[in-house]
Amino acid sequence: MCGILAVLGCSDDSQAKRVRVLELSRRLKHRGPDWSGLHQHGDCYLAHQRLAIVDPASGDQPLFNEDKSVAVTVNGEIYNHEELRKKLVNHKFRTGSDCDVIAHLYEEYGEDFVDMLDGIFSFVLLDTRDNSYIVARDAIGVASLYIGWGLDGSVWISSEMKGLNDDCEHFECFPPGHLYSSKTGGFRRWYNPPWFSEAIPSVPYDPLVLRRAFENAVIKRLMTDVPFGVLLSGGLDSSLVASITARYLAGTKTAKHWGSQLHSFCVGLENSPDLKAAREVADYLGTVHHEFHFTVQDGIDAIEDVIYHIETYDVTTIRASTPMFLMSRKIKSLGVKMVISGEGSDEIFGGYLYFHKAPNKDEFHHETCRKIKALHQYDCLRANKATSAWGLEARVPFLDKQFINVAMSIDPESKMIKRDEGRIEKWILRRAFDDEEHPYLPKHILYRQKEQFSDGVGYSWIDGLKAHADQHVTNKMMRNASNIFPHNTPTTKEAYYYRMIFERFFPQVISQNSTFRIYL
């Protein structure tokens, strides 16, 4: 994932301001180590740190329309860019970048083009003809984005909090599926799928329809001009992603450049459940498998870096982000720049074990909707930032817009966990890929019960974190926790320990002069 930074209407077009924007943009350099770009028009600045995945040779940003009156800085992947180019026959494209369509779509359709984009993205588009601008974020919030406001009336946009926290009076998470327009001065939701209203769907479950929708979601994410692989924990979700990728890779443009041999990656403590299961799946699929080990101490030593990069103090997110952070560094060292991962399945299909307590299908469906809407705060944030800390991009096919529409239109009665009928969690997904003639996975993997990511990497990982926190947080500190942290007061020593580190990096959260809505 790339890094974007924009300062809009700052009432300052001096060289000093340009230097400051460049300085802040460099804070995002880990996200895009391949190229840096900055476009200034009056008191508006668009900066970009590029991770080159598609068209590495000519796709540097910011991007422009034909006469450079429209400029765009974008972090994302537009999977349907070739189809969109066919609709823009009267336009001339400067690059082969998938993101090059954005400026031209704006010329044709105005602010209403965003829903035409199939992919993950966050972008700022500046129209220099009237000095207006729009900002948008993808449907689910896979691409991270923040917005802030300065005392001088300026609007700040950044892929990460660290790009604007020192310069804004107020800043917050940019809501997924929304667009911010300077013409109206506010947000509006561009993503309005049927499931968002949480009305109970009634489409009968068809395993082949669900299977094909997910296969399409994976296949479109094979769009890359650089080496890539799959994250493989050996659980259902990552194993399905790996199986489909291995099955269809040979017929893609990517295979012509890089070969059809799929690489898979796994991380864990020595002898952890994930390592064993992933090894078995990799052997079955014939991938080139890379197994990375870490110790509890390795993870503890990385905690401060993890919190700095993922920008949260949520306990579960930090636990799961740390192994992913360590693995991403190893993957990048092998020359790989993109991985496909399995986030989102549990939210869509009710895969968490507590879903077996759902009293009826209505409550089951409402909870899946709520979980999907909150993904940008947790699993999306982890997958995005733990990988981009090392200039690695993670793609998540379960969060494909079209796939979500298919999966969330199914009568939730089919998703209900009914053990007496042999229906464990995510039964409809398992059954969709239970093909006797051309099996995707071994049966015992296809029906393997879920492990939490931070458990799967090794059960002693959580115990080690708790013990470490216990050494650094006293009972006296816990008694005063509500006075020190009145908002989202930590209730455990582990949570208190993470919060102390987070506040050290981002003190604006508790300062008197600056506020931040963190959504935790």
UniProtKB/TrEMBL annotation:
One of its GO terms (biological process) is response to stress. Pathway: Amino-acid biosynthesis; L-asparagine biosynthesis; L-asparagine from L-aspartate (L-Gln route): step 1/1. The active site is at C2. It catalyses: L-aspartate + L-glutamine + ATP + H2O = L-asparagine + L-glutamate + AMP + diphosphate + H(+). One of its GO terms (molecular function) is ATP binding. Its EC number is 6.3.5.4. PROSITE patterns: GATASE_TYPE_2. Residues 2-185 form the Glutamine amidotransferase type-2 domain. The keyword Ribosomal protein does not apply. The record marks E343 as: Important for beta-aspartyl-AMP intermediate formation. NCBIfam families: asn_synth_AEB (TIGR01536), PRK09431.1 (NF006949). This is Asparagine synthetase [glutamine-hydrolyzing]. It comes from Gossypium raimondii (Peruvian cotton). The lineage of its organism: Eukaryota, Viridiplantae, Streptophyta, Embryophyta, Tracheophyta.
